[in-house]
């Protein structure tokens, strides 16, 4: 367990966040195709190598989350991804859920799957070099959802995953994502996010998960994308931290997902969070808000690898600078 605590502390070390580059083969293929790149395994590999080898990435990135495909691939010089990023001072991680699937009994809702055979898969991923893992549960806000059944089923699965990871000596990133689809205001998102987190804490406790050996990856509390008025960074920070206050002090850290926000908004909101004194660091584990500019700049052109890396590094530096304001900005 001490090993998990040490790894978790490194993942949320001062001034650093986590790069989420673990899109499934299907999602990554779609993003490549949308950028005009042929969605082959080799192009997915080239793109992930571009991200992982951006010069100086480790200054503000503690770890990278990969998917199964990438963890089995190598850099162009033959070094496996996990060994390659480790040499660059970055912790390799692996997404282990198998996706949000229709939840029997709850029409229109999902439960994230991947528990079958998980201990054996974790052992193999540890062999391949992964030191942390990720599992994402998804909740959609509508008039009827998320239901208590979906909240409880997903919270239980997240806890079973987290317990299995800790038994394998792998730090679980625990990701309960309340989506920003919808026309609700941020108060509704706060209430749903609070309910989801409360259920999650209860399930984690029942399975004796050590909070000092997990990283919580929540959504920021935002209005729905169809609401009409964007909450300010100060408003987002205030309401998000109010929800997180329910987590005990021993939680290793919080690393937010970006959830479809523009890269600039995600960074501004993250920076505003730093004004609050919290017992745990508040950092980033963004996917799209870090990699979208890089994919757009590169778009498959071998001549533009360096431009893609610069676009990634720009976002990484902005978010690193935001979290380094912790301590300087804290007033509450
Ligand atoms: P976004 O930051 O693009 O929401 O993705 C983060 C992630 O890892 C989703 O599981």
TrEMBL record:
Superkingdom, natural source: Bacteria
Keyword list, A-Z: Glycolysis, Lyase
GO molecular function: fructose-bisphosphate aldolase activity
Entry keyword annotation includes Phosphoprotein: no
Keyword Lyase: yes
NCBIfam families: FrucBisAld_I
Protein name: fructose-bisphosphate aldolase
Protein's organism: Mycolicibacterium agri
Organism lineage: Bacteria, Bacillati, Actinomycetota, Actinomycetes, Mycobacteriales
């Amino acid at each position: 367990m001490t090993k998990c605590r040490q790894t978790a502390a490194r993942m949320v070390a001062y001034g650093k966040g986590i790069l989420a580059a673990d899109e499934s083969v299907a999602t990554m293929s779609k993003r490549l195709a949308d950028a005009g790149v042929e969605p082959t395994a080799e192009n997915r590999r080239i793109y992930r190598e571009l991200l992982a080898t951006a010069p100086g990435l480790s200054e503000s990135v503690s770890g990278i989350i990969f998917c199964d495909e990438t963890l089995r691939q190598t850099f162009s010089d033959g070094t496996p991804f996990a060994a390659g990023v480790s040499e660059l001072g970055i912790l390799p991680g692996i997404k282990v859920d198998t996706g949000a699937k229709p939840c029997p009994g709850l029409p229109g809702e999902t439960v994230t799957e991947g528990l079958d055979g998980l201990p054996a898969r974790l052992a193999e991923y540890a062999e391949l070099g992964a030191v942390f893992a990720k599992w994402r549960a998804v909740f959609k806000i509508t008039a009827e959802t998320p239901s208590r059944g979906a909240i409880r089923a997903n919270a239980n699965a997240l806890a079973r995953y987290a317990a299995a990871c800790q038994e394998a000596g792998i730090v679980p990133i625990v990701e309960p994502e309340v989506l920003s689809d919808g026309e609700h205001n941020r108060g509704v998102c706060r209430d749903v996010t609070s309910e989801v987190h409360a259920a999650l804490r209860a399930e984690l406790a029942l399975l004796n998960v050590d909070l000092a050996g997990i990283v919580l990856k929540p959504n920021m509390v935002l209005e729905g994308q169809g609401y009409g008025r964007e909450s300010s960074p100060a408003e987002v920070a205030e309401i998000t931290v109010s929800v997180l206050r329910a987590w005990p002090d021993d939680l290793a850290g919080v690393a937010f997902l970006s959830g479809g926000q523009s890269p600039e908004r995600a960074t501004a909101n993250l920076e505003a969070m730093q004004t609050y004194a919290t017992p745990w660091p508040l950092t980033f584990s963004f996917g799209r808000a870090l990699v979208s500019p890089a994919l757009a700049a590169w778009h498959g052109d071998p001549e533009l690898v360096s431009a893609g890396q610069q676009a990634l590094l720009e976002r990484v530096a902005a978010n690193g600078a935001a979290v380094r304001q912790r301590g300087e900005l804290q007033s509450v």
